Amino acid sequence: MYDGWKIIIGIIIFLGIATFPILYDLGKAAPPPPEPKIDTPEIKKMVEKKCVEPKSLMKIEHMVMLKDWRDWYVREGRSIYIAADGKQYNISLSNTCMKCHSNKKDFCDKCHNYAAVVPYCWDCHIEPKEEGQL
Amino acid sequence: MSFGLSLWLSFFAVAVLVLVALFGVEAAHLNYLFGVIIPYAAFAIFIVGIIYRFLKWAARPVPFRIPTTAGQGKSLPWIKQNKIDNPSTALGAFVRMIFEVLLFRSLFRNTRTELRGPILSYASAKWLWIAALAFHYSFLIILIRHLRLFIEPVPFLVKTVEKLDSFFQIHLLGAPLLYITNVALLAAVTYLLLRRVVIPTLRYISLPADYFPLFLILSIGITGALMRYFYKVNVVGIKELAMGLINFSPKIPEGIGVLFYIHLFLVSTLFAYFPFSKLTHMVGVFLSPTRNLANNNRAVRHVNPWNYPVKVHTYEEYEDEFREFMKDAGIPVEKE
Predict the structure, then answer these.
(1) Is residue A93 situated within a structural domain?
(2) CB within 8 Å: A118 and B163
(3) How do residues B273-310 score in pLDDT, each as one tens digit?
(4) C-alpha distances in angstroms, A66 versus A6, A52, A97, B73, B175?
(5) Is A18 within 8 Å of B46 when comparing Cβ atoms?
(6) Among candidates A16, A1, A11, A15, which has minimal Cα distance to B289?
(7) Owning domain of residue A93
(8) A-chain residues near B163 (CB < 8 A)
(9) How many domains, in total, are found in chain A?
(10) pLDDT digit string (tens) for A43-93?
(11) For residue A48, is it within any domain?
């Protein structure tokens, strides 16, 4: 007695679990990577299009900066951020960050949805109202 | 192999793996090798290796029933049978196996034997069971969480698991929420490793095959945590790479961060090493004859499959052959 059919069922279950993402995405092309839009009126008005810190840094460290800003403003009472290039900014998500990046849906949400990240900004802040949004 | 050699050999093997990935990506710029070729190769080895192990074990005949009996077996009708710990049916064995796989019941029975003065005592020892549960379930949740990098759009279940796992927020660790499984996995692996280092009897029976996977998994956990909390990597780029791998159109996005490649190389090593190591207990547990067989030795006749065909000469045949002679000699026969 070798219980062959049980072994075969076992192998099929193993293959199904191990290759689950491949099977799930089978026949679908890889979705294009998200491209957050930086074409808001406020950004278009800028002569030199730059964020608080360089883009490469903002891209991967923005969450750290936002957390630091929260702590400085809410817990330490600091309201001015001095960037690496010496420029001063008001520490405020709604009034500094969101002034330029007023397109949450086409900017923030693009990457966050792609990577299934749920930032806790909007636990406290009120989400900005955009066109076509309830 | 001595304890020191086993431990350090394993430690340096993992350290070398880290350095290989570090220099391979940082100095030699072999991003395609470490990001595409090695992960594909490792996954192929994993799949083929596991099936090979499966078939190799399956080629052995199922033996005479040898289940561990951990409760009252089926007996007289007025004696209550423990249907799970001493199953007499396939269903009972199935339920027992489910409990074994999901709750590690045989580890739960772990005991500590020690001399208390002149008295030999046996005490319950649950730490190994707790650490093993924490480790395996953390690993499972971490695997499910990683699906967010392989599936687009991300399914609700994966999001829910992630949400529950990131229940806590620790100020020290910066912006992202703290994953409970991150802490649990690292703590459990550290315990499982220290256990083999500190307890003399365990140290005596531990080999590189024991230390290496622990160091490997520990370093995978550490690199993963480093990426999340301290040295950020480009997650969108990572998902792009992962989706490319899954759809067989691999492409290396720019600027992911070397830490990710170290993490990926260690994971690839784990996958490739899996089928040839003790880690195959993932498959082996289902094929353990002491767990997956029903205790029905007396109720059902078991013929060993490896028995050679025995040439038998039954009495009927004997009588057919010698009937006439037997009658002549006055010996009684069954058939006239």
Answers:
(1) yes
(2) yes
(3) 999 999 999 988 998 889 989 998 888 888 777 778 88
(4) 54, 11, 9, 64, 8
(5) yes
(6) A1
(7) 37-121
(8) 118
(9) 1
(10) 888 888 888 888 888 888 888 888 889 889 988 999 899 888 888 898 988
(11) yes
Residue B293 · residue B45 · CB < 8 Å:
no
Residues in Cβ contact with B113 at an 8 Å cutoff, skipping those fewer than 6 apart: B120, B121, B122
Question: Which of B145, B247, B292 is the best substitution to test chain A (most A C-beta atoms within 10 A)?
Answer: B247
Which residues, numbered 32 to 51 in chain B, qualify as contacts with chain A under a Cβ-Cβ cut-off of 8 Å?
46-47, 50-51
CA atoms within 13 A on the CB side of B266: 26
Which residues, at least 6 apart from B98, have a Cβ–Cβ distance to it below 8 Å?
none
What is the value of ipTM here, to two decimals? 0.88
Q: How many CB pairs under 8 A join A and B?
A: 99
Is there a domain that residue A70 lies in? Answer: yes
Residue range B3-306, CATH number: 1.20.950.20
Mark yes or no for CB contact B175/A118 under 8 Å. Answer: no
B322 touching A (Cβ < 8 Å): no
Q: A97 in a domain, yes or no? A: yes
Q: What is the DSSP letter of A123?
A: G
The domain limits of chain B are: 3-306
Contact present, B281 and B217 (Cβ < 8 Å)? no
Shortest distance between the Cα of A7 and any Cα of chain B, in A, equals 7
Average pLDDT over residues B250-268: 91
